[in-house]
Design brief:
Helix content: under 10%
Number of strands: 26
Strand order of the largest sheet: 18-19-20-21-22-23-24-25-26
C-alpha cells in the first residue's frame, strides 16, 4: 500500500508540471495568423516544447514541465516573447508586421506562403525572401514546425526528421550547405509519415528544387592554411556544369590536421590499502581526411528528376602516438613506475557510397525509386608497450579488420483514392559485416 501511495504521489507531481497553453494569433487587421512557431521556454529561455498555429490562428502547446515564457515567431512579423505567469489561456495575441525582413523592405508578395497539401505542410521558397537567406540549412531553420539544435534539425514533438532533396535522402549534411536557397522551389514537412517510410521515422522534410535555367560551367576553389604549434590545412572544391536539363557536379574537401595535447592527473583509491597514481600523458596525432562527391541530376520535366551520386569519404592517413608516464604509490610509499607507449593507425579507411534515384509523376501516379550501395573496409592496428621499473614488461597488439557492405532498393507508387492516397511498393535490403 505504501508503495502504491509513493507511485501515485510521483505521478501527481509529474502531472502538476504538465500544462497546455492555448490562444489565438491575429495580425493588425484582426486576421488569423496560421503556421507560426509557438515555443514554450523555461525561465532560462531553454526550449521545452513547441507547436504551430492552426489555419484559424489558434494554437495549443503542451509543456512537459513548468514553462515560464511563450515565444512566437513567423517570418514577416516581429518576434514576441510573452511571460506566461501561471496562465494556461494566453488569449488573443496580436502580431506586429516587420518593416524589413532579411534587410529588405517587406512586400506581401515576397513573403513565403504555407499551405496544407494532403499529408504535408508546404512552404513556398521560390521568389520569396527565403530564397535569399543563403543555403538550405538557413531555409529549414525558418520553416514552420522546425527548429535547429546544434547541427541537427528537430520537428516539434517528432524529433529529428529524414530529409530528402528531389526524392533522394540526404546522407551527408554537407548537401544542405551546398544547396543554395535560390535553387529551392518549396519545402514539405510531413509529421505523420505513411508506410512508405520506416516505422521509426516520425517526421520527413522533402525539399523540391526549381528547374535549372541556363548553361554554364562553374568552379569554386577554397583553401585555408593554419599555423600554430601545428600545421593544419583545409581545401574545398566545387565544380559544376549545367547544360539544358543536366547538372553534373564534383565537390568535396581534403582536410589535413596535426594535433598535440597533454594531460596531468592524479587518482587515489581508498580500499583496504590506499593506492595513488599520478599520470603525465602526451599525445601526437596526424590525419588526412577526404570527402569527395561526384554525380549528376537530370530534370527533363518539372515533375521528373533522376540522378546518380557517388561518394568517397574517410581517412587517407591516420596515426596517433601517446606516451604516458605513471608513478604508483601504496600507502604513501613508492610501488612502481610505468611508461606506456601506444601507437595506432588506420589502413584503407575509405567509405564508398553509390545512390541512384528517380522521382516523378505520370498523370496522378507518383513514383519514388531509390537504389543504394555502401561499402566500408579498413584495418585498425594498435600496439601498446608497457615498461615497468620493478615489475614485468608487457606488449599488447591488436588488429581489427572491418568490412561492411549494404545494398538496398525501394520502389513506392502513390495514387489518389477516395479523397486520400493509396501507397504501395516494396523494399529490399542486403547487409554483410565482417569484424
Amino acid at each position: 500500500m505504501k508503495l502504491v501511495l509513493v507511485l501515485l504521489s510521483a505521478l501527481l507531481s509529474v502531472a502538476t508540471y504538465a500544462q497546455t497553453l492555448t490562444g489565438k494569433l491575429i495580425d493588425a487587421q484582426n486576421q488569423p495568423v496560421p503556421f507560426a512557431n509557438i515555443l514554450a521556454l523555461d525561465a532560462d529561455s531553454v526550449f521545452i516544447s513547441g507547436n504551430v498555429s492552426a489555419e484559424d490562428g489558434t494554437f495549443q502547446v503542451t509543456a512537459t514541465k513548468q514553462a515560464a515564457l511563450l515565444k512566437i515567431s513567423y517570418i514577416g512579423y516581429q518576434e514576441q516573447i510573452i511571460p506566461i505567469q501561471n496562465r494556461t489561456d494566453m488569449g488573443i495575441i496580436q502580431l506586429q508586421e516587420e518593416a524589413t525582413v532579411l534587410g529588405e523592405i517587406v512586400i506581401k508578395g515576397s513573403l513565403p506562403v504555407t499551405k496544407i497539401k494532403g499529408d504535408a505542410m508546404v512552404t513556398s521558397i521560390e521568389n520569396t525572401v527565403l530564397s535569399k537567406v543563403g543555403s538550405a540549412n538557413d531555409v529549414l531553420q525558418k520553416i514552420p514546425g522546425v527548429t535547429k539544435d546544434d547541427d541537427a534539425f528537430n520537428v516539434f514533438g517528432k524529433g529529428e526528421p529524414l530529409i530528402y532533396i528531389n526524392g533522394r535522402e540526404v546522407m551527408n549534411k554537407e548537401e544542405l550547405e551546398r544547396l543554395n536557397s535560390d535553387e529551392i522551389k518549396n519545402v514539405e514537412l510531413i509529421t505523420n509519415p505513411g508506410s512508405k517510410y520506416d516505422a521509426t521515422v516520425k517526421a520527413v522534410i522533402r525539399i523540391q528544387t526549381v528547374k535549372r535555367k541556363g548553361d554554364g560551367f562553374g568552379i569554386d576553389l577554397r583553401s585555408s592554411y593554419y599555423q600554430s604549434q601545428n600545421t593544419d590545412s583545409y581545401n574545398h572544391w566545387n565544380i559544376n556544369y549545367q547544360h539544358n536539363n543536366w547538372d553534373i557536379f564534383w565537390d568535396g574537401y581534403y582536410n589535413y590536421q596535426n594535433s598535440e595535447w597533454g594531460e596531468d592527473s592524479e587518482t587515489s583509491n581508498h580500499v583496504e590499502d590506499v593506492w595513488t597514481q599520478t599520470n603525465t600523458a602526451r599525445d601526437k596525432g596526424r590525419e588526412s581526411e577526404l570527402n569527395s562527391t561526384f554525380g549528376f541530376n537530370f530534370m527533363p520535366k518539372e515533375n521528373h528528376s533522376l540522378g546518380v551520386k557517388y561518394d568517397i569519404t574517410g581517412y587517407l592517413d591516420y596515426k596517433d602516438d601517446m606516451n604516458t608516464e605513471s608513478n604508483v604509490g601504496l600507502n604513501g610509499n613508492y610501488y612502481d613506475q610505468l611508461l606506456n607507449k601506444s601507437h595506432s593507425y588506420y589502413k584503407n579507411h575509405l567509405t564508398h557510397t553509390l545512390n541512384g534515384y528517380y522521382n516523378g509523376e505520370i498523370n496522378d501516379l507518383s513514383i519514388d525509386l531509390n537504389i543504394d550501395y555502401y561499402k566500408q573496409s579498413y584495418d585498425y592496428n594498435s600496439t601498446t608497450f608497457e615498461n615497468s621499473e620493478d615489475k614485468d614488461d608487457r606488449e599488447i597488439r591488436s588488429l581489427n579488420p572491418v568490412d561492411n557492405q549494404l545494398a538496398a532498393a525501394k520502389l513506392i507508387f502513390e495514387h489518389p483514392l477516395f479523397g486520400g492516397n493509396l501507397s504501395f511498393g516494396s523494399e529490399y535490403t542486403y547487409t554483410l559485416r565482417t569484424d
